[in-house]
Design a protein that fits this description.
Layout (H helix, E strand, L loop, with lengths): L9 H12 L5 E4 L12 E3 L10 H16 L3 E4 L7 H13 L5 E4 L4 H10 L5 E4 L9 E6 L1 H15 L4 E8 L2 H17 L4 E8 L10 H13 L4 E5 L4 H10 L3 E6 L15 E7 L1 H13 L6 E5 L6 E3 L4 H4 L2 H16 L8
Parallel strand pairs: 2-3, 2-4, 4-5, 5-6, 6-12, 7-8, 7-9, 9-10, 10-11
Antiparallel strand pairs: 1-3, 11-13
Main location: membrane
Membrane topology: Lipid-anchor
Subcellular location: Cell membrane
Length: 349
C-alpha cells in the first residue's frame, strides 16, 4: 500500500476534521484502525438529497464502502447544506484535501466550479466529479456515463409493457444531464412502438427549487401523468423519484427506477412489486475505480466514461416479472446489441 502510518491521536484527528467541516455540512468518518493513516483515503461530498436518497448518492457511498473495506483506510463522506454556494462546496473539498484525503470526489454536476477551484489549490491531490465533463485539469477525473443508453432500454421496456399506449417521464430538473435521460427514453419508446405516447415533464428549472429532493413533487407529477392514462412512469429525479414510485404503487401501474437497482432498496421495499426495472449507472464502480487508481499509484484523470459496452450502464433484472418475460428480455437484448455495435445511435438531447 502507498500509505504510511504515523503515530497520532485518533480523537484529535477526528475533532480536527469535524471542526474544519462544521460550516460545510455534516460529516461522517470511519477508519479500520485506531491510528489514522498519514495519507488518508477516499472522501466524497454528496449532491442534493444526500445519503439516503436510495439512488445517486447512495451509489457513491457504496463505492466508498467498498474502497474502505478493501484498502483498510480512513474515509469521509459529507452532506450538503440548504442554500449553499459554489464557494461553500469548494471550501468543503478544500477542507477534505487539507486533512489528507485522496481522492476527493464531488458527487454531481453542481460541484464543477468547486472541484476546479479545489484542484488548482491542491495539485497533488486527485479530485473526481460525477456527471460532469467540462473540467480539464491534470489531477481531475470526470466520471461520466451514457445515461441515454440505459434510458433507451428503459424506453423499450416501457413500450413493451404498456397496455394503454401511454407512458411517462419525470425529470428532476430541466438541465442537460436530465435531458439525456429523457431523450434516450423517448427514442427507445418510439423505436419500439411509434403508437405509444410519451408524457414528459421536469419538476423544477433549478436544483435549488427541490427537483432532486422533493418526493412530494415527484408523487404529484406522476399522479398527473397516471390520470392521463400513463401506466409506466420513468423517473430521473433523485430523491424525488421515490414519490413517483409511491404514486405508481398506489395506482397499480409500473414505475421504472434510476441510477441504483431500486427494486432492492430497503426504503422502497413496500413498493418493489411496482418497480418494473431500473436504468442503472454504476456510480459505485466508478468511485471505487478512481480510489483504486490512486491506491495503485496511477491516478485516473480526464474523462472516464461508462456505457453499455463497459457494463457501467444497464437495466436491472431484479423483478422476476421483468426477468422472466422472455419476449421483453429479447427486445431489450436486441436493442442493447444494436447500441453497442453502433447500429442504433442514441440521442442525448
Amino acid at each position: 500500500m502507498r500509505r504510511i502510518s504515523r503515530i497520532t491521536v485518533a480523537g484529535a484527528a477526528t475533532a480536527s476534521l469535524a471542526l474544519a467541516l462544521s460550516a460545510c455540512g455534516s460529516t461522517s468518518t470511519s477508519s479500520s484502525s485506531s491510528e489514522p493513516k498519514g495519507d488518508k483515503g477516499l472522501a466524497i461530498a454528496y449532491d442534493v438529497g444526500g445519503k439516503g436518497d436510495q439512488s445517486f448518492n447512495d451509489a457513491a457511498y457504496a463505492g466508498l464502502e467498498q474502497a474502505k473495506k478493501e484498502f483498510g483506510y480512513e474515509t469521509a463522506d459529507v452532506e450538503p447544506t440548504d442554500g449553499e454556494t459554489d464557494a461553500d462546496k469548494e471550501q468543503r473539498l478544500v477542507s477534505l484535501a487539507k486533512q489528507g484525503y485522496n481522492p476527493v470526489v464531488g458527487v454531481g454536476y453542481a460541484y464543477a466550479a468547486a472541484v476546479k477551484g479545489a484542484a488548482e489549490k491542491f495539485p497533488d491531490t486527485t479530485f473526481g466529479i460525477v456527471d460532469d465533463a467540462t473540467i480539464e485539469a491534470d489531477n481531475v477525473a470526470d466520471l461520466v456515463f451514457s445515461e441515454e443508453q440505459a434510458s433507451y432500454l428503459a424506453g423499450v421496456a416501457a413500450a413493451e409493457s404498456t397496455r394503454t399506449n401511454v407512458v411517462g417521464f419525470v425529470g428532476g430538473v430541466n438541465i442537460p444531464l436530465i435531458h439525456k435521460f429523457r431523450a434516450g427514453f423517448e427514442q427507445g419508446v418510439k423505436d419500439t412502438d411509434p403508437k405509444v405516447k410519451v408524457i414528459s415533464q421536469f419538476l423544477t428549472q433549478t436544483a435549488e427549487e427541490g427537483g432532486f429532493s422533493s418526493p412530494d413533487k415527484g408523487k404529484s407529477a406522476a399522479e398527473g401523468q397516471i390520470e392521463k392514462k400513463a401506466d409506466v412512469v420513468y423517473a430521473a429525479a433523485g430523491l424525488s423519484g421515490q414519490g413517483v414510485i409511491e404514486a405508481a404503487a398506489a395506482n397499480k401501474v409500473w414505475a421504472i427506477g434510476v441510477d441504483s437497482d431500486q427494486y432492492r432498496q430497503e426504503a422502497l421495499a413496500k413498493y418493489k412489486d411496482s418497480i418494473l426495472t431500473s436504468a442503472m449507472k454504476d456510480v459505485a464502480k466508478a468511485v471505487y475505480n478512481l480510489a483504486k487508481s490512486v491506491e495503485d499509484g496511477k491516478p485516473a484523470t480526464g474523462i472516464v466514461k461508462g456505457d453499455l459496452k463497459t457494463g457501467e450502464v444497464s437495466l436491472s433484472n431484479s423483478n422476476p416479472k421483468f426477468a422472466d418475460d422472455a419476449e421483453l428480455q429479447e427486445a431489450i437484448e436486441t436493442a442493447k446489441e444494436k447500441i453497442v455495435s453502433g447500429e442504433i445511435k442514441v440521442k442525448s438531447s
